[in-house]
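Standup notes
- DV: blocked on the single-chain target, sequence here:
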Amino acid sequence: YQRRVHGEFSKMEAYGKAFVSHYYQTFDGNRAGLGALYGPDSMLTFETNQVQGQAAILEKLMSLPFKAIQHLVTTVDVHPTLASGILIFVLGQLKTDDDPPHSFSQCFVLKDAGGGSYYVLNDVFRLVVHNM
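- DV (later): unblocked, structure below
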């Protein structure tokens, strides 16, 4: 049993890390392509703004006020969830246009869509800002 569970977790962890790589490559190079990763019941919290649904999420992501962006992922943690979902927590830095790099954290919950595919059910993004 333990070997089977470990093997399933290894597959899930590999899938989660591959998702993160795909997500940020798409975000950095073709933001419009992110829409396909969300579904009608998906929810995004971007800083203090919450939107729900594939179209509203894509509209929010496309409206972000920078022309160029580059994400540098520092760590990725992957956990299984109920109903064969995947929880992914990401820490990293991003650089937009000519701004200095900023640290960020992002958490995804991927929902099993059947047939070995997943979509982003929940997405929470925060810049890591320490105002003292």
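- Follow-up: The longest helix spans residues 2-29.
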